[in-house]
Amino acid sequence: MNSLEQLPLGWQILVGALLLVGGVFALVGAIGLVRLRDFYMRLHAPTKATTLGVGGVLLASMAVGAAQGRWAVAELLIALFVFVTAPVSANLLAQAALHRREPSEAPPPPDQPLP
């Protein structure tokens, strides 16, 4: 089986749904990157939503592979790489911004009442 049209209807629906969910998460991450106000807020959108978008596309690729009877080793390695490196790189970027004393437009947290 070389094309998606040769997959059974159930597999096609599953792959389409996973691609749609992955695309929506990627779109939300991209919109968040453009619309949010400061660096710290912009950092949150691509590291969370876009990572889930890539995860949806990788799951769709795994589903196609499973329907064709092959192992999804490459997709698992890509998923492992993305899900490990995205939070680490976001943490390093946030630490660098804190070190540079980048300003934030987020309101300060309210004071906690004493017990």
UniProtKB/TrEMBL annotation:
Keywords: Membrane, Transmembrane, Transmembrane helix. It comes from the Bacteria. It holds the Pfam family PhaG_MnhG_YufB. One of its GO terms (molecular function) is sodium:proton antiporter activity. The chain crosses the membrane at residues 12-36, 48-67, 73-94. This is Na(+) H(+) antiporter, subunit G. It comes from Piscinibacter sakaiensis.
